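### Sample
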Amino acid sequence: MVYEIKQLMAGIEEIGEVTGAGLIGEGGDFTKHKTIAEITKLAGLDLFEVSSGKHKGSRHISKRGRPLMRKLLFYAAINVVREGCLP
């Protein structure tokens, strides 16, 4: 299973071996999660808002997940944007 995930991440050239290994280490077996929302919550990237009565608060990421996973995803996204590999 880890070998398949490693091959998948190797297909994205902008994600290096260290970042890929860190994501696998932090996320574990991604196939255990049924939806992308579960992985998003694991990383702490899910949205929350503080609302009360008529007041509707603004939405922010919860940051309740794994901080290292968020950091690795941020660096991976920066590398993809920097290298210009977006479709």
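The first strand starts at residue 47 and ends at 49. This sample (Mobile element protein) is used throughout the tutorial notebook.
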